[in-house]
Task: structure prediction
Amino acid sequence: MTHKAGFVSIIGKPNVGKSTLINELVGAKLSIITAKAQTTRHRILGIVSDENYQVIFSDTPGIIKPKYLLHERMMGSVEQSLQDGDLLLLVIAWEEKQLDEEVLKRLQKNKAPVIGVLNKVDLATSQEDVVARVEALKKEITCLDFVAASAKEKFNTKRIFQLILEHLPESPAFFPKDQLTDRPERFFASEIVREKIFMYLREELPYSCEVEIMEFKEEENIIRIYADIYVLRDSQKIILIGAGGRNLKKIGTEARKDLEAFFNKKVYLEQHVKVRDNWRDDTNYLKSFGYTD
Ligand SMILES: Nc1nc2c(ncn2[C@@H]2O[C@H](COP(=O)(O)OP(=O)(O)OP(=O)(O)O)[C@@H](O)[C@H]2O)c(=O)[nH]1
Ligand SMILES: [Mg+2]
Result:
């Protein structure tokens, strides 16, 4: 049997369920998921291999019009992912009533074959509505196929994987067969802390925060993680910490639980909050947080 391998990029507006779908297709929680838009900030590879194939999924940030340099870097990683993709998974959420202009703009530059996913169909009230919307999307967008799915309810996700395998190019593997991702442990540690910040803080605050792992020390029975959380202003530091340290404690407790599950080991987590005005527009800070141009 011939061997198939290739890069599959996922794109769409923020909050349409791209990361939920990727995690389901990869079978591991590599990408953080929250109810807020712009949760994903980096391109993250998730690799699924078997004797006969290797699918390299790229999760990407939701497509937006950039407002600051961080956004530009995020959109740069979408661009990069589009360039490398052998196949494109375009995700549209059930609640999107018309196609997003920014997404369409990106799609015009794409040369890879597209598999469309109408996600969150668990929110639809009738099967006929779903069928009608899928048929309309097939007419609007040039694609191999359009699949109605629910990443959250695991509906049709196997069908999507099957379609990907059918259309994957013949190629030897790009990565060792036991490799799951391109990201180091520190990256996942910072993402897990950031997920809790997105979950428990409101309004602008999550968008003003970044997490950097200063130390990640694996000992025999415990992993010691020292995380710096950056905010833009003193007032944000006060809210992030909360009265009597309540907010930071909640973030730390919830993050530690997930870190222990992710690394399958006891975790000690220490967090420090720092103010860096303008980090979102500062090339050097962005670089140190892993956003390259
Ligand atoms: N009802 C429903 N909710 C879903 C489904 N898939 C994802 N969600 C929810 O939608 C929200 C966003 O999911 P994500 O996977 O983070 O979305 P994303 O497209 O990666 O978002 P960004 O990273 O911000 O671009 C979360 O609250 C998910 O639980 C689905 O099939 N049905
Ligand atoms: Mg995401």
